[in-house]
Amino acid sequence: MHKMEHIRNFCIIAHIDHGKSTIADRLLEYTDTVTGRDLQNQLLDDMDIERERGITIKSHAIQMEYLHNDQKYILNLIDTPGHVDFSYEVSRSIAACEGALLIVDATQGIQAQTISNLYLALENDLEIIPVMNKMDLENAMADEVRDQIIDLIGCNEDDIIEASGKTGYGIDKIINTVIDKIPHPVGDAEAPLQALIFDSLFNSFRGIIAYFRIMNGEIRKGDHVKFVSTGKEYNADEIGVLKLDRIPREVLKSGDVGYIISGIKTSKEVKVGDTITHVENSCKEAISGFSDVKPMVFAGIYPVDTDDYEELRASMDKLKLNDASLTFIPESSVALGFGFRCGFLGLLHMEIIQERLDREFNMDVITTVPNVSYNAYTTKGELIEVHNPSGLPAPNYLDRIEEPYITANIISKSEYVGSVMKLCIDKRGILKNQVYLTSDRVEVSFEMPLGEIVFDFYDRLKSISKGYASFDYYQSGYKLANLVRLDILLNDEVVDALSTLIHRDNAYDFSRRMCVKLKELIPRQQFDVAIQAAIGSKIIARETVRALRKDVTAKCYGGDITRKRKLLEKQKKGKKRMRQVGNVEVPQQAFLAVLKLD
Predict the structure, then answer these.
(1) pLDDT, tens digit, for every residue of 134-154?
(2) Helix-helix angle 504-521:588-595, to 10 degrees
């Protein structure tokens, strides 16, 4: 049995595209964890989307063995997602480690994501090993990036390892440094069991498999355990370590990273950040830092064909097993039929869920305008959480609305600072801070409403900065908001799927454009269709789709005017009656076009 002194648990921190998955591949190869036959690039990213976009979505863990000075060491690499939407998962992975490799792309320098994850690691007192990756490229700015790293973490110049994930240069040095510098786990093997769940995954045969890191105590196969935050109890049917496959073991001790299978069927019961302990001799307190993942962005997802509703429900259930941070509740809309109101961690998360519904389940879905959750206070002082504009109380019962605010940190080249600032101020942002990191790189901090960035902020930021600006945000709390609910009425009927919550100053302009757009898209009927935009009972914009008319007076040539009048009156009555029974079908493109209003 290995001793705790010979275990190293570490993770990799990097911005998107700085090469951490490639470095992970090289580490696995160098320690002979992967043999030639299993070798493929980005080995740990096993979803199609992860490979195509080159991003890591789920955290992964893998164990390597390495002989160093004739002593066998066990290295557990816990891979983390790099994107801002998944920062809670990252924080739990970091809490399961004692050290981190900080990987910086030598051609790009330090970016926003790296900094925010680095702070997480420093809060958890991890030993940081800086690595400059992509040193084989001609445009590597070695000296400049080296200075940036020294500025950021205050290390010595010779602490920084130069490496290249592509050619394998410097990988041996990384492994030796991990063993020399990262402290071994400390834990009391005699204490009650205390283990941190940092990830879970769904297997259609075995149920939910939870990945954990033992802080204190030990766990044996068949033990009676409980999960602290849900209070549920299980038997550990199988425990083991994570190599390329899962390898069962009889016992795992403190400091070990492993998995547990206990026949759990629903993903709600396994929460990332939860603590596992024994039922009999349970630990005094849970591991700190646990929180339920809170969705930040909400959108409705509806099947294009209403008959597919049950199928969509089954697909969402399966998706939720694999991705526990997805939340959804059924809702119905007059215009779109039955569907679900879904909560996502952020915009990337939303895009990925849509993509996976399409790919893995062949579901055609419509997504409504994404929005965030607001706190609405009624005149009686009750608090209502509003995820959907139609859930907002009527204006005469509404006392005030608060909307979530974020603190956004944007790092950009100094030549783009002007346009970045303009973009943020247009989105109702308030400048908090501006720091020059080097002579041509600036970090600006803004406080802005989350609702303003869910639309097209990220795309516009990338285009005005020619792809250079990197962006990171965290939620900072709620603030009073001057928001109104804008309803769209067709013939005095509210179309709920087109309602939006919007800042009062932008409401008039937005509603004008919306009405004009809908006028183009709604087909002409046998009667006039009034398209109106209203705030409460006040109409602020209107367009009319003119009726198709038949020329009923064509046969009256000459003769008395009253004969024409009679026919026109008759037609008018018919149109009026038709308008009472006729209803307006809103075509599918109309909903999508509203999303694309620029």
Answers:
(1) 888 888 888 888 888 887 777
(2) 150
DSSP letter (8 states) at residue 165: T
Rg (CA), the chain: 29
Burial of 386 (0-12, 13-18, 19+ CB in 10 A): buried
Of the candidates 372, 384, 408, the one whose C-alpha atom is nearest the C-alpha of residue 294 is 372
DSSP type of residue 129:
E
Task: Please state, as a whole number, how many other Cβ atoms lie within 10 Å of the Cβ of residue 245.
Answer: 7
Topology, domain 485-595 = Alpha-Beta Plaits (3.30.70)
Please report how many Cα atoms fall inside a 13 Å half-sphere around the Cα of residue 297, on the Cβ side: 24
Residues found in the chain: 598
d(CA 282, CA 265): 24
Structure tokens at 55: 């991003």
Phi, psi angles (nearest 5°) of residue 318 = -65, -40
Q: Which CATH number fits domain 375-481: 1.20.120.450, 3.30.70.240, 3.10.310.10, 3.20.20.105?
A: 3.30.70.240
- The domain spans of the chain are 4-181, 194-278, 297-368, 375-481, 485-595
Give the 3-state DSSP-derived string for 185-245, with helices as H, strands as E and coil as C: CCCCCCCCCEEEEEEEEEECCCEEEEEEEEEECEEECCCEEEECCCCCEEECCEEEEECCC
One-letter amino acid of 308: D
Dihedral sign of CA atoms 483, 488, 493, 497 in order: negative
Instruction: Give the phi and the psi of residue 91 in degrees, each rounded to 5.
Output: -65, -35
The phi, psi pair for 17, rounded to 5°, reads: 75, 15
CA 112, 116, 119 angle in degrees (round to 5)? 140
Give the list of residues 6+ apart from residue 256 with CB closer than 8 angstroms, or none: 7, 213, 214, 241
Q: How many CB atoms lie within 10 A of CB 163?
A: 26
The pLDDT tens digits for 3-60 are: 788 888 888 887 767 777 788 878 888 887 766 555 555 544 444 555 455 555 455 6
CA distances from 550 to 108, 170, 557, 575 (A): 67, 82, 16, 11
Tell me which residue has tokens 């069962």. Answer: 248
Domain 194-278 and domain 485-595, same fold? Reply is: no
Class for domain 297-368, per CATH? alpha beta
CA dist 135 and 120 (Å) reads 26
Helices (H) and strands (E) in the chain, counts: 14, 32
